[in-house]
Amino acid sequence: MSDDLTLDIDGEHYVIRKGDAGLRVGRRNGEDVAWLDEVDPALLPEDARAALAEGDGSSEALRLAVGGIVQAEVKRGG
Q: Which of 14, 21, 53, 64 is buried most deeply by CB count within 10 Å?
């Protein structure tokens, strides 16, 4: 995936970007992105990985996976 994928989760806009070191998850703030976490895509459920590969931002599985990453970051105090 060369472009960012934006997901709307509970009224918040999150950006995911696949990079060399993993999957970056961030929150859009105007034109900028504040990166929250980077995870290994292999940790995502199979259906979320498939949606990511297809660039399907409407996938409920992908939205749930990213929501879980965001919740984990919040609990860590990020």
A: 14
Alpha-carbon distance of 43 to 58, in angstroms, equals 20
- What is this structure's pTM? 0.85
Give the list of residues 6+ apart from residue 23 with CB closer than 8 angstroms, or none: 16, 17, 38, 39, 40, 41, 44, 52
Angle, nearest 10°, between helix axes 46-54 and 60-76? 110
One-letter amino acid at 40 equals: D
**How far, CA to CA in Å, does 24 sit from each of 5, 14?**
11, 10
Cα separation values, 51 from 11, 30, 59, 69, 73, Å: 20, 25, 6, 16, 22
How many Å apart are CA 26 and CA 17, to the nearest integer? Answer: 9
